[in-house]
Amino acid sequence: MSTPTVNKQKIQIHLPPILSKIVSVYWSYRSFFSNGFLAWLIASLIWRVRSVIVAGKKQGSVRRLSLKDQLIKGSSAAGGGGVSDSSMKKKPAVGSEKPLPSLPPSSSQKVSTSESPLQQVDNVAATTGGKGKKKGDGPRADVDAVFFGRMARLIPILIPGVQSKEFWLLNAFSGFLILRTVLSLYVAQLDGEIVSALVRRQGRGFVIGIISWMAVAIPATYTNSMLTWFQNKLAILFRTRITNFLHDKYLENMTFYKVGNLDDRIKNADQIITQDVAQFSQKVSEIYSNLAKPILDTILYNIQLSNNVGFESVFASFIIVNYSAYILRVMTPPFGKYAAEEARLEGEFRFAHSRLIENAEEIALYAGHDVEKSILDRGYEGLIKHINRISRTRIWHTMLEDFLIKYFWGAMGMVMCAVPVFFEVPGTEAKVGDLGSRTQGFVTNRRLLLSSSDAVGRIMYSYKEVSELAGYTARVSELLDVFEDIEQGVFQKRLVSNANTDLLQQRGEFIESDIIEFKNVPIVSPNGDLLVSSLSFNVKKGMHLLIVGPNGSGKSSLFRILGGLWPMYGGIVAKPDPKNIFYIPQRPYLSLGTLRDQIIYPDTLQEMQAKGVTDVQLLELMKVVEISHIVEREGGFDAEKDWKDILAGGDKQRVAISRLFYHTPRYAILDECTSSVSMDIERIMYTHAQKLGISLLTVSHRPSLWQYHNWILQYDGQGGYVFTKLDAKRRLALQEEKNTLEQKLIEAPKLQKRLEDLKQLVQEHNIRMSSDALSTLGSNPSRLQPLSRPVKSRPRLPRGDFDEPGNGKPSTQPNL
After folding, report:
1. pTM for this structure?
2. For 490-628, where are the alpha helices, taking DSSP H only?
3. What is the pLDDT of residues 236-282, one digit of tens each?
4. Following CA atoms 548, 551, 556, 560 in sequence, which dihedral angle do they give, to the nearest 10 degrees?
5. Based on CB atoms within 10 Å of each CB, which residue in 21, 77, 539, 542 is the most buried?
6. What gap in Å lies between CA 311 and CA 324, rounded to an integer?
7. Structural contact between residues 654 and 682, judged by C-beta atoms closer than 8 angstroms
């Protein structure tokens, strides 16, 4: 049975002669115009991306170069703490805080570079940010030049080079994306052939088409599965790269301490490294898949559509899509800023719970659960309000997206596909034919158009994902900025109102030496509080220094400067190699690992074996402080437990002392490290440490430790101190006499009160005796006659003072 043919009707349009001439010239150079348009489109896209990236890099460089100037301006605006003399003389703004001024570099001030933990640092003014930026706002998170600059900075971290695994995996990923696009083109053509065979009632062609359809399903499904695998694998590799990079930055030069104690910009670095980095890596891998293939699909599909329906229709669709995309972009809310704010609120809510766990005992003793619950509820309520606000915003935005992408673009696509049906377009593959040919062409073009529309839609939808990526990129970049600033000695910290800005512009010097010596070093806390104006002392081998003073006078602060934790604002600090100084705090740190790891920390098992130390020797060290029973009780040195919860407070301090004996440094800093052990164990600890030749620097209020030291550094709490030789015996005698006098002074008010009571009782007794005597004389007047001779009267004692008159024994229960 033959297939009926339908003649294709042509729609003729009569144009004026001048327009006909123009149209004729256009059709003569039509291929040139179409190819030029395609080249211009690709070149403009490449140039625009390049310009945005370059602008981002320039803006990032300007930020790095002008950081100090911006902070100085911010400090002047915030509290008058500038760098010039005039700004120094200005009265600071009302408030309890003011920012720290920047430290100008000085060629005459040298900094030791031989020790990475003791790099000299500058403190720079801390403000809330640029103009108009409110306190608590996060970094800018828009899809702009700054975002592309940040990505250009992070991409070398994610893909370090052409030899990296990520680079080759990305190339393989790109290959599968291209393969999927090619398969999509083939499926579109195959779809048209199947429908054409169906319309023409060609059974053989229909069966061949179905078989081809099923055959192409095998590579298509494999390609889709591999694309998913590549995307997840890239996300894991990207996260591994940037996490390792951040760990290196975070754990070098004590950055992990400085970022939380010397800088106010990052309060939840742990959340950024663990959660935001994971989200960032996942978004990057998704964005590449969601942008690379749609862009490739759009180019290839439109080239094929141009061949099928004409260049003019494609150009018109480009204009429509471009303007509708512009409208959608203008109407799109700042989802990047929303994502960054959501991450910040999540971090604060998580920090509130961590704070509750950390201070659970104190909160429980104060019965402060209601207050803490209100804090947690406020944090969660703020987070949920923000999430609900985002959800409400997405309603109308999703509605606008669906209208433009699905319906408006779909209607325009139908018009485009109908062009070859109603018009004969020269230079295209559309030929006049029967119903089957026109149906095949329409179905193929519509399939290409739908695929192209879907690709453009994915590009438009991805703008929202790019905005969210911008938020995570801003968070990760801010963390890197803080790490780099801290590495260069640039901090942003709020200061107390009475901070000495002149002093804070000075710089100190670290030198390596065999002794510990401070020369005219001011002790200044990170918030600018001056504890000691100028400290000078030295500790040589064989000296044992006792450091005493009231709380907050600067005892532990001295060790923080010595360890490189706090910046130094003047003077000279001489110290030996860090391996020859060992610090033991009041609460010893117990790491994750075996019992052996607790004794040798921070050494590893390999380092212990390289030193030639055995488990038997470790056991002997533990026997010195009488904790060897722990080895057998807990299952040997290889036992892995949560030692922080297993060991008691005294056992923890003994483990820390065993750790000191293992390392045997030249100097040991002991900060109340024997507060939970008995005096006998304390004596064993100190005497054994001195036998090992360790010079001790001890912070303690216990007089029992004086006998183990021969020098003393005493703070008065008012910024002054005394450094002198310590005569332990004489000082103990003076201390004992002082304690005796203090005890007597304490008891003096009680003795005085007892004396007053006794006086009052005696007076009352005398009055009663006089009254009794008068009563007796009144009843017997003869007693009033004078005696012939004077009789010496004996004073009577109060009744009850003695059991019997004259027996000389005090009564056990006096009745006064």
Report:
1. 0.61
2. 555-562, 595-600, 605-610, 615-624
3. 999 999 999 999 999 888 888 888 778 778 878 888 898 899 999 99
4. -140
5. 539
6. 20
7. no
